[in-house]
Amino acid sequence: MEENHTPLLDAIDTDTLTPFVQKIYKSEDFQILNWQVKQLGGGAGNPVSLGLFRYFGSCQSKNEEKNWSIILKIIQSPANVGSVNMGEGEDTSHWNYWKREPLVYQSGLLQNLPNGLSAPQLFAVTEITGNYIFLWLEDIIEDQTKDWTLEQYAWTARLLGRLNGNFIKNDKRFNYPWLSLNRHHSWIEMMPWDIFPWDDPRALIRYRSPEFNSFRKLLSQNKRFLSILDQIPQTISHGDTYPTNFKIRELKNRQLETVALDWALTGITPIGDDLGQFVFGAITNLKSDSPEDIENLLFESYIKGLRDVDCYLDRQIVRFGYTVTAAMRVGLFQIYLLGEEINTREMEPKNTVIDTPAHICFEEMMAEEAYNLIDTIQL
């Protein structure tokens, strides 16, 4: 075994892993021959995630030898690292409630995902003394080594439409008291947008000057936009749809399936909310296609996904929900990151040469359209 990355792994041994391997191959005959552990991520960013680990090796049943692997996600209360108001308490509707992902997996919610979309299989949830939870999950290994194509992004956007449309049509939201609520309100209150140095030379690398910055204007009038967001159709959303949380695999019948990972931020949000972060990631990753072409195709695919499950919402309302939440979700996180960078370099000489941004950034693009739409929304 490789060197442990956290003392919490010390208690994991062959006896711990054997039942999982037997579940993978649906046979108690399999016994582990050897195993290793490798850290995949975690330990930075959101304090709820302490680490993501892959356990893997070989096993044998009579004369048959096979390889196996399984994922361990270690979740902790943010209070363990001194975080305050980051989901460490008993407020199950907090956007970052630390026990949410195990509850999602145990609830059965993920067993009723729309055709073409799935989640990793849950093997076990184990609570550990000290406000830790071990989440043992199926290891999803993507079949391809190449980057996703525009068509694959479009297909997954359609699946997100099916997911969100399914919960508009079949309202099961109140069966799950641990879903996050009012995330956009919380982020507006939490993120330091009102003291962000919009006219700092380093901020102007991303944003237009403050008087032309439509995203800044949207934030300053956030109550107007949030009021309408609260009134448009609400649905259960995945909540963290950056493309790294999706993998494509081929099933035994040769059909392709998209697997959605990381359900920790699952909650009730306005229709369209799941699309914005995904579109931003696609634009970031696909350098050979124009942002406008990517954005248009993925939105149309999302609309098709809604219609696949007989969800025929007013197109303008969907578009408004998408553009406003996209601007807020992506933009607030971007100014948080940029603010951290500016603060850490506060003592350095400000000799950056500023050019006008070559393209309007994503959150400004979304905010501009949101302004064009807001007076057309009829509720």
Description:
A hairpin with a 2-residue loop joins strand 2 and strand 3 (64-76). The chain has helices at 14-24, 100-107, 150-169, 183-190, 214-220, 222-229, 273-285, 291-308, 315-344, 362-374, and strands at 31-41, 49-61, 64-76, 117-118, 122-128, 132-138, 234-237, 246-250, 256-260, 267-270. It is built from 10 helices and 10 strands. It has a 5-stranded antiparallel sheet. The chain has 379 residues and is an alpha+beta fold. The protein folds into 2 domains: 7-138, Phosphorylase Kinase, domain 1; 150-374, Alpha-Beta Complex (Aminoglycoside 3'-phosphotransferase, Chain: A, domain 2), CATH 3.90.1200. Helices cover 36% and strands 19% of the residues. The chain is globular, with a radius of gyration of 22 Å. It starts with 13 loop residues before the first helix and ends in a 5-residue tail after the last helix.
List keywords for this structure.
379 residues, alpha+beta, Phosphorylase Kinase, domain 1, five-stranded antiparallel sheet, 10 helices, 36% helix, 19% strand, globular
β-strand amount: 15-25%
Based on CA atoms alone, the radius of gyration comes out at: 22 Å
- Weakly predicted, low-confidence segments: none
Assign an overall shape: globular
Which bin fits the share of residues in helices?
A: 25-40%
Order of strands across the main sheet = 1-2-3-6-5
Number of strands: 10
Quick check: average pLDDT? Answer: 91
CATH class of the largest domain: Alpha Beta
Summarize the main sheet: 5 strands, antiparallel
| Tally of DSSP helical segments | 10
Using the coordinates shown, work out and report the CATH topology of the largest domain. Aminoglycoside 3'-phosphotransferase, Chain: A, domain 2
